[in-house]
Amino acid sequence: MGLQLLLLAGGAVGVAAIARRRGWPAPLLLVAAGLLVSPLVPAVPLQPELVLYVFLPPLLYSAALDSSYLRLRDVKRAVGLLSIGLVLFTTAVVGLVVHLMLPDLPLALAFALGAIIAPPDAVAAVAVGRRLGLPRRSLTILIGESLFNDATALTLYRVAIGAAVGGAVSLWEGLWEFLFAAVGGVVIGLALAFLFAWIFQHTRDSLVENTLMLLIPFAAYLAAESVHASGVIAVVIVGLYLGYRMHLRGFGTRLVSDAVWKVTDFFLEAIVFALIGLQLVTVIEGITGYSPWAVAGYAAAVLAVTIVTRFVWVFAVTYVVKVWRRGSGPSAAESVILGWAGMRGVVSLAAAFSISGVAPRDRALLLFLTFTTVIGTLLIQGTTFPALIRRLGVSSEQEQYEDRLAEAAAQQAALESGLAELERLVGELDDEPDEIQRQVIDQLREKSWRRSLTAWERLGGGTGAGGAETPSALYRRLRRDMLQAERQVFVRLRDERRLDDEVLREVMAQLDFEEAILER
Fold this sequence. Notes:
The protein is mainly α. The chain folds into three domains: 2-395, Na+/H+ antiporter like fold (Up-down Bundle), CATH 1.20.1530.20; 396-461; 468-520. It is built from 21 helices and no strands. Helix 1 packs across helix 12, helix 3 runs parallel beside helix 11 and helix 9 packs parallel to helix 11 (231-244). The longest helix is centred in the middle third of the chain and has 33 residues, at 292-324. It is globular and about 90 Å long. 37% of the residues are buried.
């Protein structure tokens, strides 16, 4: 098993690396690769506990940490309508359709299937949308939906499975469990957010703070789930709160945190999407007692209903919003994009694999229908999503220009404030600055002006009149070449045993930070 997991991780990272080099959506390539090799390798079981308690918390936390609380607050109605309203609607519609197709299947299990496949996983959609310049509002809605919809779906799933296994559950009991999970998740998330914020105020150690950051999502998830509250909501609340206050941390904490979570996301997402494709043989072998054509028909029907249901909800809500606001609301292109961004992910599969206490025949069918819906949405919607964005002509170019303009104005204001502070400090000197001190002061002024100039130059795309290289671009290009030459000297001196490796690492870190600033 150890070798198997190592090969899985290595293969997933290799496929993801190819996708990044080619500019392809890594999740889709990983799923396709998993499907291709599944019949050729030993079965790799998808353990629900591994997904829900190991993979899900850090991925949710990282997404929340990187999200904008202010932007999410601006689209809170849209996020609520998708993460709660659409999940409830999808659960009801899919459950009723499955019950009509399979009257022998208990109604509670039909609704359980609806809850399992109700929440989309926006990882693939957001990755494609960012690369192709999807407007910020649409991306924010998709991210917000993916942060909160798992909480709604998993709570509905627990209620439905409880009814299927333990008997009837009243509407009020189900509503109470849903409200308790949501409110409990918020309360626990806020309590832990305040606690860790207080701890961070007294640490001031980037290594300790980032180590705690790795533990926070697991602590929040386990604390909430131990009292039957929503671990998903608890993790998201903590991530949003600490991400909003990240400016209070030291620069070392922010630099390390950015690198740590990028690596964590890349590694976990690669494994998760590869695992989805590798379940092909396991899922198919479990189907017994049904004709292949019948099972294929059920799968196609559930997939079609899942896709259509999202479109119906999105356009119905858009129409109501426009009527309510007298014509103001999402555009048709934005509605189409939100409707087509309904790719399902590993959380749905994990929930299906965790079904227990029901007839093996029913469990195998639910697992198969979940698997085909996840694969179908990923491969059909995921592969056509880029073409749809291009076809609709949706772009964030205007937003990007406004961002650069706002950054340039902010840099100018910060420059003026910094120079005013510099002049105040110079004025407080006891003696007139000598030649060396004046050179230092002039260097500080020049560096501030250069940073402000770079921001204004970006408004022109980094080129001057006639496509000529701007002064800042020239400076960056020449300085990068100089840094490379300096590195070669340090490495040569190390190889000649005239410089110790520890000293080499220190000077290389200084050069690396300078190059990182140039890249920024």
